[in-house]
Specification:
The chain has 362 residues and is an alpha/beta fold. The protein contains 13 helices and eight strands. The model is unreliable at 53-58 (pLDDT under 50).
């Protein structure tokens, strides 16, 4: 039986708002610390979806005990915890608020969850609205709070253009020094061409891969992985099948028929002479710089592995968002183990080995 490591689980921090608010500075202790994701995300989640948490009350979110119950029942060795409301950190406009909210969330996550057991690992929030503060908070998360990385939002008003921009180079430099990973996670789906939709499911279906594809393209085309060759970045919660589509589209556009220029006047970082754009992407995958989260029931996983290799793909439970109980999660794991379109080595890599490499966990 392969080791199963959960690269992307969640805590429903909006249910713990009053707890987290106590970590905010005096006079700023409000239970809603983070903006809503977009025009209908929270309206759907709060009004139309009844959570069915493992072994617990429908009125309370899973705490550390429920999380341990879940991973024990599913056979997961350890899980890396991401926020829920905190996925909207990129929408914060106030620099001061972003710094205080990230610090409060990280302190709470450590005290409430990750300090209780080594099987629950934390990913910190950093205030990307101010790169100097983000560097300081990244250092604190890793060195003082024992977290395994930090999250970068895929979308939001607080993002300075895109994640390939020079403003974020100090963050990448610090992550290299610390030996930790950074992860780009979807959540806020506004300004992606979906704002006029009144139906939720297409916004959710398309928003996640659209957001992370934009940031993957930004980091790849602006030379982040050449400038920071020891940086490890994961693109999470968009499924696996955007990867072959992404590589195909890059190959169609990076060729002699399209002028390759940078409007800033800088040389265009990209494929080596004679190297296709898809090969450029796959080289960074092979060298351990790029990782991609997938859904366990992803029908296109085998094709994505065939096109890009097994090295980048990461199993994610997404508990308690899309998976509400241990039985359904274990069923999806068993179905993946029974697939005949993946080899045993590939199954071991995507279920656990790749997550261990990304997060630097033995």
């Amino acid at each position: 039986m392969p080791t199963i490591n959960d690269a992307d689980g969640h805590i429903n921090d909006y249910f713990f708002g009053d707890e987290i608010a106590k970590y905010m500075p005096e006079g700023n202790q409000f239970s809603q610390m983070f903006p809503v994701f977009d025009h209908l995300h929270f309206r759907y989640l709060m009004k139309n979806r009844v959570p069915k948490y493992v072994g617990g009350s429908m009125k309370t979110a899973p705490g550390p005990a429920e999380w341990l119950e879940f991973i024990e029942a599913t056979g997961i060795a350890w899980s890396v915890l991401y926020p829920s409301a905190g996925l909207g950190v990129g929408r914060i406009v106030s620099v001061e608020w972003a710094i205080a909210a990230c610090r409060a969330y990280n302190n709470w996550l450590h005290d409430r969850f990750t300090s209780t057991t080594p099987r629950l690992k934390g990913v910190g929030l950093i205030p990307i609205q101010d790169e100097e503060a983000a560097v300081a908070e990244l250092h604190r998360c890793i060195r003082e709070l024992g977290m395994v990385g930090a999250m970068l939002p895929s979308n939001g008003e607080g993002i300075k253009g895109h994640l390939g921009a020079k403003a974020y180079w100090p963050i990448y430099e610090e992550a290299e020094k610390l030996g930790c990973c950074l992860t780009v996670h979807g959540g806020a789906h506004h300004h992606l061409g979906l704002d006029g939709f009144s139906v939720y499911y297409p916004v959710h279906a398309l928003g996640h891969p659209f957001g992370i594809m934009v940031q993957a393209a930004a980091m790849l085309s602006h030379g982040i992985f050449e400038r920071f060759p020891r940086l490890r970045v994961a693109f999470l919660e968009g499924g696996a099948t955007w990867v072959p589509f992404f590589m195909d589209r890059l190959d169609r556009s990076y060729n002699e028929g399209h002028l390759q220029i940078d409007l800033a006047g800088d040389p265009v970082p990209g494929p080596r002479p004679g190297e296709k754009a898809s090969e450029h992407f796959k080289r960074h995958v092979r060298e351990g710089r790029i990782f991609v989260g997938f859904d366990c029931d992803d029908a296109g996983l085998a094709f994505a592995v065939q096109q890009a290799g097994a090295e980048p793909f990461l199993f994610a439970s997404d508990f308690p968002h899309e998976v509400f109980d241990a039985a359904s999660c274990r069923h999806e794991i068993d179905e993946l183990l029974q697939r005949d379109d993946l080899t045993q080595d590939q199954k071991e890599a995507v279920l656990g080995g790749n997550a261990a490499r990304l997060y630097g966990i033995d």
